[in-house]
TrEMBL record:
Originating species: Streptomyces mutomycini
InterPro entries per record: 6-PGluconate_DH-like_C_sf, 6PGD_dom2, 6PGDH_NADP-bd, HIBADH-like_NADP-bd, HIBADH-related, NAD(P)-bd_dom_sf, Tartro_sem_red
Protein's UniProt keywords contain NAD: yes
Protein name (record): 2-hydroxy-3-oxopropionate reductase
Entry coiled-coil feature ranges: none
Class in the EC hierarchy, top level: oxidoreductase
Alphabetized UniProt keyword annotations: NAD, Oxidoreductase
Domain 3-hydroxyisobutyrate dehydrogenase-like NAD-binding as annotated: residue spans: 169-287
Pfam families linked: NAD_binding_11, NAD_binding_2
GO MF terms, alphabetically ordered: 2-hydroxy-3-oxopropionate reductase activity
């Protein structure tokens, strides 16, 4: 079944990487995975993939290398150096970085990879853990049209909305805008929840009717139960959204775009993290509003 499909090396098997790599295995791809935690490599093997003892082992024979790690420093750590992807992947391989990092990191990676004969796409995603499991992610890509076309069959296994947004770094710029919208949206929902509860309204009923009108959103659909049940087990951690708000505020400053509301929400995310909630889901912005409103958290 998989004989004519490209072989895949997957680096980074976290909350997003594990289900995404497993979806490729289910689709018939031969996937060799590497990550720092052995139990996560074992999970991929149990799902029908292969495990590797190092990045070099994982990428050596791969047609496509996919990376999904937390931030720019981790991308640089796995890409560069004698044990990294660029030194060990074969010429002509396609490197798809699905991490959310600074646009400049993606531009630099593509430039350095080109010297090694390795093609690069930045292809960050939106949709969170649920979107990864259900293979309905939104994938925003940056790079060459020919490389995007080559990656399409594989990306279609992972997501539903897959768009080339422009040259290298463009995917990351769009992802930064995505994270801005999501954070502001969660904050608005959190404020509404506290307002509704303090007013004595049936919260579940209120959120249902709000979600059926103009105030409805994917954020509210996905996070409604988190708000109702105060369940903040991470689908997307505050720590990572804090990193992303830093990316978007910095990038906006560089291009001269004002983010007045985004700047405030970035500080609220930072505040939540400073209060020890960095490991919680970003819907925990509700906790920040509750604290500000004098509620017991």
């Amino acid at each position: 079944m998989s004989s004519n499909l490209p072989t895949v090396a997957w680096i980074g098997l976290g909350i997003m990487g594990s289900p995404m790599s497993e979806n490729l295995v289910k689709a018939g791809y031969q996937v060799t995975g590497y990550t720092l935690e052995q139990d996560k490599v074992d999970r991929l093997v149990a799902a029908g993939g292969r495990g590797a003892a190092s990045i070099a082992d994982a990428v050596r024979d791969a047609d496509v290398v996919i990376t999904m790690v937390p931030a720019s420093p981790q991308v640089e750590a796995i890409a560069y150096g004698p044990d990294g992807i660029l030194e060990n992947a074969r010429r002509g391989a396609l490197l798809i970085d699905m991490s959310s990092i600074t646009p400049q990191t993606s531009v630099d990676l593509a430039k350095n990879a080109k010297d090694k004969g390795i093609r690069v796409l930045d292809a960050p995603v939106s949709g969170g853990e649920a979107g990864a499991i259900e293979a309905v992610l939104s994938i925003m890509a940056g790079g060459e049209q020919t490389d995007f076309d080559a990656a399409q069959p594989l990306l279609q296994v992972l997501g539903r909305t897959i768009v080339l947004c422009g040259p290298h770094g463009s995917g990351q710029t769009v992802k930064a805008a995505n994270q801005l919208i999501v954070a502001v949206n969660i904050q608005a929902c959190a404020e509404a929840v506290v307002f509704l509860e303090k007013s004595g309204v049936d919260l579940a009923a209120a959120l249902d009717v709000l979600n059926g009108g103009l105030a409805g959103s994917t954020v509210l659909t996905r996070k409604k139960d988190n708000f109702l049940e105060r369940d903040f087990a991470p689908g997307f951690r505050i720590d990572l959204h804090h990193k992303d708000m830093g990316i978007v505020t910095d990038a906006a400053r560089n291009v001269g775009a004002a983010l007045p509301v985004g700047g405030v929400v970035a500080q609220l995310v930072a505040s939540l993290r400073a209060q020890g909630d960095g490991g919680l889901d970003h819907s925990a912005l509700l906790r920040s509003v509750e604290r500000l409103s004098g509620s017991q958290v």
